Structure to design on (541 residues):
């Protein structure tokens, strides 16, 4: 694959990750490409190269070391990297992404080896298009852009956040086989509030306080327009911007340019998928559910809005839909007497007494589903889980806060305190849990079930825009892939072992929706699945 498409030779070829085959260059290639003498004599198969990588990984002392090794491997040989990662996604997703990517981000300036992706700063104002043209690939189809302003429950970590767009885009390929050469990670460095980082000599970002909202609006507008000019048809994936910025820019751009916000729309979609799955298991009706969110930030509000949108599709009025949803945040119950609420939060304010007591709110509001999106570790105490179990035959509990150190309760706690009644999912993968001879399989409500499939459908169908319905379609498609056997074990999400198959199936449904609703620009093929399958990246030489 790679040899035909490159004119590179010699060391330049060996140092080009996209084209390098390393010890797998055969004798003829070594002759033709001036590689003779530059490689050890043994010609190896890709499988043997992967075996060596697996041996190296086994010898590393922890997952952060494995992360550093894998990132280095991607920079040396992309095919071996993706072959390795795609051979065992369950093992490698947690290293490239949650939870290890969080450690990698905290240490970003310290473990830094080589530049990756692009850094856009306020000092490039007026020249962003010119700067974007420095990227060597012209057909960029996805930019994942983060300010690092709100990472994985770690708060503002500025330019250290670059680990996130890198990891997110790696999963487009690892989970949904989107070709890696069309992916561009961007860190939008607007400064950071993080004093500790600004004082760290090894910090790699701009050592300034964040720009004002007004300046950020201008910078973002310039960036969005520059992307349209330099990479027409490119989808902008907003990731980990500060909550209010995230909501503002999604509102501003989603009907104008091809873009989405994974923290808001991807999270909402994967949460909705879990709710659909739970309904399949309990036989419950979504219209009858009452949903309490602990945390009212971009994730919680995004999930609540998408659930309301689905409830309206099912025939409820706007008001009825909203009455099924309640929120608590750091200042307690979101209720009408509060004067610190955003316009989005105000829409969900309950007519109730102020309180900070979660057990009391559960007792009064009687939720069937409890979401944790608060970054408040341990907030779902034994009393909380017991109260949920007292009022529900099968309490549905999502403890979504990442990383593991922020989770509201663990799988073990949810199953033990509910005496095995809870249907539970977390943002991270907890191990299987045995209780009274029964095995429980906690779900991982992670956006990686959704956004790579959105990416694959977008890559193939080339939509002009992405609307909310794309994310509802993705949620249904994901939930419908949880088999009856999996449901019996309490699984709310499909297995990660065959994630590629799952994502392709989801992408086919999304692409169908795009074609049916006039969003797609590509010509509708006769068989959408085989048409998508022809476009998949395959890590082979
Ligand atoms: P955010 O910062 O926008 O919102 C956090 C919310 O939690 C705010 O409403 C805040 O008032 C509230 N909160 C903070 N401390 C609290 C406390 N002690 N008690 C009650 N409420 C408290 O953050 P965002 O984007 O909404 O994310 C929240 C969490 O959800 C993060 O840990 C994030 O990693 C996780 N998340 C998980 C996803 C997944 O697993 N699929 C996807 C997106 C987010």
């Amino acid at each position: 694959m790679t040899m035909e498409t490159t004119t590179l030779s010699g060391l330049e070829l060996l140092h080009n990750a996209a084209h390098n085959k390393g010890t797998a260059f055969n004798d003829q290639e070594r002759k033709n490409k001036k590689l003779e003498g530059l490689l050890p004599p043994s010609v190896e198969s890709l499988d043997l190269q992967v075996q060596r990588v697996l041996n190296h990984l086994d010898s590393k002392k922890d997952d952060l070391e494995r992360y550093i090794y894998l990132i280095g491997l991607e920079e040396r040989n992309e095919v071996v990297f993706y072959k390795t990662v795609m051979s065992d996604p369950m093992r490698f997703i947690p290293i490239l992404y949650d939870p290890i990517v969080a450690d990698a981000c905290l240490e970003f300036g310290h473990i830094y080896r080589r530049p990756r992706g692009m850094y856009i700063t306020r000092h490039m104002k007026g020249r962003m298009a010119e700067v974007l043209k420095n990227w060597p690939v012209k057909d960029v189809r996805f930019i994942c852009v983060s300010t690092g302003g709100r990472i994985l429950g770690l708060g503002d970590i500025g330019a250290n956040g670059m680990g996130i767009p890198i990891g997110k885009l790696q999963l487009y390929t690892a989970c949904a086989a989107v070709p890696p050469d069309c992916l561009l990670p961007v860190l939008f460095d607007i400064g950071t509030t993080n004093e500790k980082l600004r004082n760290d000599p090894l910090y790699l970002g701009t050592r300034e306080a964040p720009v004002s909202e007004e300046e950020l609006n201008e910078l973002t507008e310039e960036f969005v327009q520059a992307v349209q000019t330099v990479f027409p048809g490119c989808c902008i994936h907003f990731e980990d911007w500060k909550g209010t910025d995230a909501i503002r820019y999604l509102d501003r751009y989603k009907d104008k340019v091809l873009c989405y916000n994974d923290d808001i729309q991807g999270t909402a979609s994967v949460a909705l998928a879990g709710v659909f799955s739970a309904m399949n298991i309990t036989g419950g009706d979504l219209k009858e559910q009452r949903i309490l969110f602990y945390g009212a930030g971009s994730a919680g509000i995004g999930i609540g809005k998408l659930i309301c949108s689905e409830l309206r599709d099912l025939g409820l009025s706007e008001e009825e839909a909203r009455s099924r949803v309640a929120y608590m945040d750091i200042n307690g119950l979101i209720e009408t007497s509060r004067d610190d609420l955003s316009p989005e939060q105000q829409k969900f304010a309950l007519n109730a007494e102020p309180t900070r007591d979660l057990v009391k709110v559960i007792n009064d509001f009687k939720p069937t589903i409890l979401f944790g999106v608060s970054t408040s570790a341990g907030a779902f105490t034994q009393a909380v889980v017991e109260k949920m179990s007292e009022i529900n035959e099968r309490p549905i509990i999502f403890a979504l806060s990442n990383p593991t150190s922020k989770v509201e309760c663990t799988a073990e706690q949810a199953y033990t305190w509910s005496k095995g009644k809870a249907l539970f999912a977390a943002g991270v993968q907890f191990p299987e849990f045995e209780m009274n001879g029964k095995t429980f399989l906690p779900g991982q409500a992670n956006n990686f079930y959704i956004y790579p499939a959105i990416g694959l459908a977008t890559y193939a169908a080339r939509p002009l825009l992405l609307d909310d319905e794309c994310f509802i379609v993705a949620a249904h498609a994901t939930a419908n892939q949880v088999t009856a056997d999996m449901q019996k074990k309490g699984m709310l999400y499909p297995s990660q072992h065959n994630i590629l198959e799952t994502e392709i199936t989801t992408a086919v449904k999304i692409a169908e929706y795009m074609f049916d609703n006039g969003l797609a620009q590509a010509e509708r093929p006769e068989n959408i699945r085989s048409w998508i399958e022809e476009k998949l990246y395959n890590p082979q030489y």
Notes: The two ends are 5 Å apart (CA to CA). Residues 171 and 452 are 7 Å apart (CA to CA). The chain has a mean pLDDT of 95.
